[in-house]
Amino acid sequence: MIFSSDLDRTLIYSRKSMGVVPEHELVPVELYQGEYISYMTQTSIELLQNLSDQALFIPVTTRTEEQYKRIFYIQQYFQPRYAVTSNGGKILIDGVLDQEWSAQIQRALMESASFEEVRRAFEQISSPEWVKKMNFSDELFFTVILDPERVPVPIIEEFRQRLEGMGWHVSLQGRKLYLVPAGVNKGAAVLYIRELVGARYIASAGDSLLDESLLNISDLALSPRHGELYARKPGNEEVRYTRLTGIKAAEELIEEITDYFLNIQQQVTGIL
């Protein structure tokens, strides 16, 4: 059994995204430039440890490999053997890049418009009034830093449709806009790992449109009610949304997935 989960705003939270929670419940999990910037609750950590004893825990993130490695707590405390970074573009096995998967990604990139085509298309609609910086992340996708107060949402939505026709996906998450080739996706990476380990069941969690590929290949799919996915598709019957929002949503979704796997184990035991 596999529990594959997005990290930011699903399992780990910044001060701005966590909501109201007593300070004594927080555990710092990410260190950047000498400051703690992401947290989990102590309860979430204990629940995730219990779940990790039942299932293979796979962190799955749009973060680059370098950004993922800043999350010291998950790597040191849970020591996941497999991790998916760069929105599915990279798979780490015991911290080492899986070269076979990287070769598959390079082949998949050929099915979408080139990076330069997408860059030029975005430059046609962007403006320095709301675009602060555009990064080429891990040479796989674009991360655009925005002024969230000035983002012209109708223009972004029109651009989203244009890029879909070019084989790319668009995700707007607060101050970040992601432009990602369709072949670079979380779901495909987790299916690859499932083949490696021979797992049958997958339960997943994620909050954004970039998590859809992950949720779509799962037997149980959960999403925090505060996320981009809920905002755009609240009636999605294939996904269970949490009742809670903010950092407490992590506790709720881990508990539900734990119960799901326990039920499976009980059913298998009963059959045997």
How would you briefly describe this protein structure?
This protein is an alpha/beta fold and 272 residues long. The protein contains ten helices and 14 strands.
Write a structural description.
α1 packs parallel to α10. The strands form four sheets. Strands 4-1-12-13-14 form a five-stranded parallel sheet. Helices cover 38% and strands 25% of the residues. The mean pLDDT is 95. The chain is globular and about 60 Å long. With 272 residues, the chain is of the alpha/beta class. It has ten helices and 14 strands. InterPro entries: HAD-like_sf (IPR036412), HAD_sf (IPR023214), SPP-like_dom (IPR006380), TPP-like (IPR024197). It comes from Paenibacillus medicaginis.
What does the secondary structure layout of this molecule look like, with pairings?
Elements: E1 2-5, E2 26-32, E3 35-41, H1 42-54, E4 56-59, H2 65-68, H3 72-78, E5 82-85, E6 90-93, E7 96-97, H4 99-109, H5 115-125, E8 131-137, E9 141-146, H6 153-164, E10 168-173, E11 176-181, H7 186-197, E12 202-205, H8 212-216, E13 220-223, H9 228-232, E14 240-241, H10 248-271
Parallel strand pairs: 1-4, 1-12, 12-13, 13-14
Antiparallel strand pairs: 2-3, 5-6, 6-7, 8-9, 9-11, 10-11
Note the main sheet: 5 strands, parallel
Ranges with pLDDT <50 over ≥5 residues? none
How much of the sequence is in beta strands?
A: 15-25%
Order of helices and strands: EEEHEHHEEEHHEEHEEHEHEHEH
Please state the oligomeric state of the protein chains shown.
single chain
Count every helix, treating DSSP H or I runs of 4 or more residues as helices. 10
Tally of strands: 14
Q: Mean pLDDT, rounded to whole units? A: 95
Principal-axes shape call:
globular
